[in-house]
Amino acid sequence: MAVAAHLMHRRRDAWLWRLLATGASFAVFGIGGVILRVLILPMFALLPGGPLARRRRARAAISRAFHLHVQFMYRTRVLDFRIDGAERLGRPGQLVVANHPSLIDVVFLISQMRDTNCVVKASLWSNPCMHGAVRAAQYISNNGSPEMLEQAANVLRGGETLVMFPEGTRTTPGQPPVFHRGAAAIALRGARTITPVFISVAPTTLTKAEPWYHIPWRRVMVHLRVGDDIDPASFDNAPMPIASRRLNQHLHHLFLQGLDAP
């Protein structure tokens, strides 16, 4: 049985090429971040328009850069991908919630939306490749403070789209997602609608337990499926702590079911 399992999962599908192409993908991503910071975003800042116009241009540049990066990974055969329902992303006051199986989830999501905000980990503000982009785009730092929750709710009230990963970190391989209540609390405070995005990555790659050079035995398939909208008003008939707990439980069960769907 062990021999059969080994033969089934032996390296194939141009494994060595995918190792080299994955390393190149990381290099291209880092170089692209530096180019955005030192060249493209400063150039955009010189164009006519106020802070809102500069923010929109920065977000559009990041979205386009992420789109090109997805295409680079696809064209070099690092991965295949499929996105269902992307046309329903990017609406005013929309909170997009997604599970987080891999490091590249945010790249795929933001590549589909020209002007969106995003809650990102606080360490990106000191990352030499990314801090210029996250500052110019005015993304929200996931520092866990009550001020962060109110800031996120405010951007939704102001008509922005906001992307969040309610787990707060990447999913442990083989385990179901565990959602924290922050996304639900933000949704109840400011979202016009909540849109779930179910992300599957098979075989697993770029999880917290897998360094980039642990290349899967076959080419990765990334699938994003946009689910049905959820009206946050249907959960606000109770005090906030109870309402956010109910909404969080609803999202958790929804993703447990949705990730098992084809």
Architecture overview:
It holds the Pfam family Acyltransferase. Keywords: Acyltransferase, Membrane, Transferase, Transmembrane, Transmembrane helix. The chain is an alpha/beta fold and 262 residues long. The chain has a single domain, classed as Glycerol-3-phosphate (1)-acyltransferase (3-Layer(aba) Sandwich). The protein is 44% helix and 15% strand. It contains eight helices and seven strands; from the N terminus they run αααββαβαβαβαββα. Strands 1-7-6-2-5-3-4 form a seven-stranded mixed beta sheet, sandwiched between helices. The longest helix has 31 residues. The two termini are 28 Å apart. The N terminus is likely disordered.
Summarize the entry for a quick read.
This is Acyltransferase family protein. The protein is 44% helix and 15% strand. It is built from eight helices and seven strands; from the N terminus they run H-H-H-E-E-H-E-H-E-H-E-H-E-E-H.
* String of helices and strands: HHHEEHEHEHEHEEH
Mean pLDDT: 91
Radius of gyration: 19 Å
Number of DSSP strands? 7
Distance between the ends: 28 Å
Strand content: 5-15%
Sequence stretches where pLDDT stays below 50 over 5 or more residues: 1-8
CATH first level:
Alpha Beta
Count of the separate structural domains: 1
Mind describing the biggest β-sheet?
7 strands, mixed
Q: Quickly give the structural class.
A: alpha/beta
State the helical fraction. Answer: 40-55%
Strand order of the largest sheet: 1-7-6-2-5-3-4
CATH architecture grouping: 3-Layer(aba) Sandwich
Pfam families: Acyltransferase
Domain Phospholipid/glycerol acyltransferase: 94-202
Transmembrane segments: 20-47
Pathway: Lipid metabolism
